[in-house]
Amino acid sequence: MTQPDARLEITPDEYRQRRERLCLLLQAQGLDAVCVFAPVRVAYLSGFFFSATERPIALIVTASGEVAALLPRLEVSHYELQGPGGTLLEVYAEYPGGGSGRHPMRHLQDLLTRLGLQDRRVAADVDGYEHRWGYRGPALSEVLGRPVPSALALIDDLRAVKSSAEIALMREACRWGDHAHRLMQDGLHVGAQELLVSHAASLQATEDLLGTLGGRYVPKSREGMPANAMFIRGANTAHPHGLHQAGPVQRGDVLVTGAYGIIGGYESELERTMIVGDPGPDVARYFGAMLTAQQVAFGALRPGRTCAEVEADVRRFIRDELGMDGLVRHHTGHAFGLEGHEHPFLDLDDHSVIVPGMVFSVEPGLYVPDVAGFRHSDTVVVTATGNERLSLYPRDLASLTVPVPG
């Protein structure tokens, strides 16, 4: 059981257990090592959270349990604060070479040679560092002169089933996402500006979080706040990922909101459809249809089923019972944790088997062109017998109607 004054982050022992599980998978696949480039996967396996730039970073885990890392010089002290002890480091001066005349990927080749892996079977999550912030460089397969097997699924399948510690962090994140949403809803009124209300609520929720959690809260990022809320409004909500727009909130607006917390690097997800003033009959009908579809999804999500079966149940209900299949724009949900979207997906073509410990968003939406969108999203963890909703914000129309005086 977590101590009341414990820091809200994954422990070094759990990171070690993750690497041990990965080693067993490597052995079972006949692989000698895996080279991990994606920042979130590096963090998942090592506890090293960093701001990804054009400078390549790679973590190597061998089948025998050795850990090594390719780092730019500016990240060495940062890694030593967060990463596992005993890591073999290969440090380069700068990208693209800092005057050395050698690309960082050639330093990675040196590191693999130091590990005795130059002629062994090395897999990778992706074939080389991702092209961000102007980065250019050779693929790992080019550096090694041979094909590189993919190990993406080995790592991401581990990530799909959350530990009790991960679920506890996400539960706490949900608490603060709910709080940020409440502050935002309390600040809504006719004439309010989207960005001002959203940022004011996010800032206040963050201040409350820091005051409540104190030293237990451990930032894992250089950007953003740990508690956030936002909304879009009007016909703009008919676009599932509509951007902010200028202008005030008006009577009759439909709002689609989003709120989340981030605790120990783990996210929550909460979305609600809200109405400014009394909803008309059409708005109430679409809201009710969306709410019932989400309830069908809750009932369909349980261990032993596949993601595709859950989606099929929801789509069948929307098509056959609601007659609104033409208003669907996306699948029912997705897993998440360290990232806002993770594998697997509640989608007709994802046949992953659902098991206890998986965490999903549940968010079937209906989008009426030139009118509005209608979507709730909740954070849900799969249990032994069904699922549990971790985001506890009200879902009913009355609770989500913004009163308008007069």
Task: Describe it.
The protein has 406 residues and is of the alpha+beta class. It has two domains: 12-158, Creatine Amidinohydrolase, Chain A, domain 1, CATH 3.40.350; 161-402, Creatinase/methionine aminopeptidase superfamily (Creatine Amidinohydrolase), CATH 3.90.230. The protein has ten helices and 17 strands. It has helices spanning 12-29, 39-46, 76-82, 104-114, 140-144, 152-160, 164-186, 194-213, 281-300, 307-322, and strands spanning 33-36, 58-62, 67-72, 88-92, 122-124, 227-233, 254-263, 266-267, 273-276, 333-335, 342-346, 359-362, 365-368, 372-375, 378-382, 387-389, 401-402.
Which SSEs are present, and which pair or pack?
Blueprint: H1 12-29, E1 33-36, H2 39-46, E2 58-62, E3 67-72, H3 76-82, E4 88-92, H4 104-114, E5 122-124, H5 140-144, H6 152-160, H7 164-186, H8 194-213, E6 227-233, E7 254-263, E8 266-267, E9 273-276, H9 281-300, H10 307-322, E10 333-335, E11 342-346, E12 359-362, E13 365-368, E14 372-375, E15 378-382, E16 387-389, E17 401-402
Parallel strand pairs: 1-5, 3-4, 9-17
Antiparallel strand pairs: 1-2, 2-3, 6-7, 7-8, 7-9, 10-11, 12-15, 13-14, 15-16
The helix content, as a percent range, equals 25-40%
Provide the spatial order of strands within the biggest beta sheet. Answer: 4-3-2-1-5
Assigned CATH architecture of the largest domain: Alpha-Beta Complex
Task: Report how far apart the termini are.
Answer: 52 Å
CATH topology of the largest domain: Creatine Amidinohydrolase
Radius of gyration using CA atoms only? 23 Å
CATH class (first level) name of the largest domain = Alpha Beta
Structural class: alpha+beta
Q: Could you tell me the mean pLDDT?
A: 96
Instruction: Give the name of the CATH superfamily of the largest domain.
Output: Creatinase/methionine aminopeptidase superfamily
What are the low-pLDDT stretches, counting only 5+ consecutive residues below 50?
Answer: none
Q: Quick one: overall form?
A: globular
Tell me what portion of residues adopts beta-strand conformation: 15-25%
| Topology, number of strands | 17
Order of helices and strands: HEHEEHEHEHHHHEEEEHHEEEEEEEE
Total of DSSP H or I helical runs spanning 4+ residues: 10
Number of domains: 2
Q: How does the major sheet shape up?
A: 5 strands, mixed
Organism: Deinococcus aquiradiocola
Domain Peptidase M24: 169-384
Domain Creatinase N-terminal: 18-160
InterPro entries: Creatin/AminoP/Spt16_N (IPR029149), Creatinase/aminopeptidase-like (IPR036005), Creatinase_N (IPR000587), Pept_M24 (IPR000994), Peptidase_M24B (IPR050659)
